Give the backbone structure.
Amino acid sequence: MSPASHSADEQMEAFFIGPAANQLFACYHPAQGQANSLGFVLCAPLGQEAIQFHRSLRLLARLLSEAGFPVLRFDFQGCGDSAGDQENWSLKNWEQDVERALQALKEKSGVTSLGLVGVRLGATVALAAAAARGGVQALVSWDALLDGHEFLSEARAQHQDMLANAHVRVDMDPEGEARSELLGFALPDNLVKELEGLRSSDLAASPARQVLVMESFPRFPQAGLHTGLEKLGACVSLQNHENEQLWAWTEDFAKVHIPRKILEAIRAWAQELPS
């Protein structure tokens, strides 16, 4: 690690957003050196993907802060160290969380322009939240969920594969068959219904002026999102960095892959944005 990386970690501030009843846990990474007027909020994926990708998002926050961008990471309602439980899991709730996180970033950093980086379901939520609020300058959508029904089908198949290979005994949970569960996380019925009806074509407005659509896995093609965003008037770039080690369930978290080249590509794109 470089001295700048040590400095970035030392200056990171953990805090809570909002009142105790529905507070969000957040980590703020101040800009290193000359601060940019643009700051980024990072939106994590869901469940097992969030656990596996936690380290990558922290590294991305550090890379962006070292490049002069203030960054805020946070946990959605019912996730991580934020208030609530899985009954609070809702796309609408999480879109409101994005707005709260953006406001917290403005208060902490004083930035005048706002950016978002979303990964998987976090990208889907970021796109919807930004399109609804308007005024977002830059957005990175990384392997967004573009069809909720397809996502649920694939995730359920992955869940069955986990049960067949992991060190768990299904017969110890007789109620499990009646519960919608993905890789150890029970999904509330309202979220399942939201996901079943989720389509990328639902976006009615451009989520940001500048958008980077990042595709890193062949089974999650993003070309349709790129085309749709262009029709909505966004200035869109599509980058493909194929990495089949991502988004595969692993029982050993010591073997979680860190996609360093993709993280650095996001930082490079942000540095090239018009001021």
In short: Residues 3-146+205-271 form a domain with the Rossmann fold fold (CATH 3.40.50.1820).
